[in-house]
Amino acid sequence: MYLRHGTFSYLPEFTDADIAAQVRYALLNSWPVSVEYTDDPHPRNAYWQMWGLPLFDLDEPDGVLAEINACRATFPRHYVRVLAYDARFGRQTTALSFLVQRPAVEPGFELTRTEGPDRRQTYGLRSYATEKPQGARYGG
Predict the structure, then answer these.
(1) Which residue range or ranges hold the Ribulose bisphosphate carboxylase small subunit domain (predicted)?
(2) β-sheet bridge partners, residue 125
């Protein structure tokens, strides 16, 4: 299953030059950038592990790319994303979020169906990845 997650989920995978262009755009808008990773990308899992601290006061994307590459090297079988935070008064929200790495094998999700009273059907999602313990979900 190909996980569609983030601002550019409908585009092909970004190259490092594409990532640098998006990070530059975020920095030009004065949005602090952070790098996060996870091995449980459930759509409702909004809280991923943060790689280091948010990167404030940068002018060029080189520092962010160095952090992205360090995170990729440390967690080669995890999802890695970049977040840009708009901290202006009245906004204070995520302005930009996109994946920069995904594992080679994505187990995906299963649609579950439960029958309730009056033959009412309820549906939910269950991640295959959660059948294994954290840290062992995407191969060994």
Answers:
(1) 4-103
(2) 111
Q: How far apart are CA 82 and CA 18, in angstroms?
A: 12
Give dist(CA 111, CA 88) in Å, integer. 39
What element of type H or E holds 71? helix 62-74
Contacts of 50 (CB under 8 A, 6+ apart): 34, 35, 36
Tell me the two tokens of residue 2. Answer: 């190909």
CA 52 to centroid of chain Cα atoms: 15
Distance CA 52, CA 69 (A): 13
Inter-residue contact 55 to 34 (CB < 8 Å): yes
pLDDT tens-place string over residues 108-137: 677 888 898 888 999 887 777 677 776 676
Task: Give 68-87 pLDDT, tens digit per residue.
Answer: 999 999 999 899 999 999 98
The token pair at 125 is 């999602």
Kindly report the pTM of this predicted structure: 0.76
